[in-house]
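Please fill in the sequence for the structure shown.

STRUCTURE ENCODING:
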């Protein structure tokens, strides 16, 4: 009898603890506050593209997952995305790898960038290992390894720190 009472008390205690834990999870505030203006700023940048063909291209590829070596909507990497965008929108023939693509540009400062210019990054600290395409107002499109094809803001610290080179394709 005493054993059954102890088991009942333990069950009741566990039940109360579970309710406390579950209710605390629901009241937790996010540690990173989403920026409510970022989506509207991206929409603004997209709506102000000069090339409607570029706008359509980005919309068609938006959200396609990242796949190293990928070159289709089943998955694409950053250099493949830049390769296809430059070919389809501007008629440029880029090499396939981002570090080789970086050798094909005439360098510019950020303030001189125009729609369609290429931006190169080194997240590994060495050679160029990522590429994106400048849109306008500090926004660029790229194939992110974690989020797929997205539009991002160049002023974010991670991009500022990793950016190594930018410019237009040498014809």
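FILLED IN BY: designer on duty
SEQUENCE:
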């Amino acid at each position: 009898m005493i054993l059954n009472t102890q088991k009942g008390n333990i069950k009741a205690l566990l039940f109360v603890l579970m309710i406390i834990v579950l209710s605390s999870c629901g009241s937790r505030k996010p540690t990173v506050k989403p920026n409510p203006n970022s989506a509207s700023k991206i929409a603004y940048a997209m709506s102000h593209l000069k090339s409607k063909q570029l706008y359509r291209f980005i919309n068609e590829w938006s959200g396609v997952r990242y796949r190293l070596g990928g070159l289709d909507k089943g998955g694409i990497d950053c250099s493949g995305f830049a390769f296809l965008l430059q070919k389809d929108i501007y008629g440029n023939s880029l090499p396939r790898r981002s570090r080789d693509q970086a050798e094909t540009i005439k360098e510019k400062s950020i303030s001189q960038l125009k729609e369609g210019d290429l931006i190169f990054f080194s997240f590994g600290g060495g050679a160029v290992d990522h590429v994106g395409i400048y849109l306008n107002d500090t926004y660029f499109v790229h194939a992110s390894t974690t989020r797929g094809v997205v539009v991002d803001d160049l002023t974010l610290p991670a991009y500022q720190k990793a950016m190594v080179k930018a410019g237009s394709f040498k014809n």
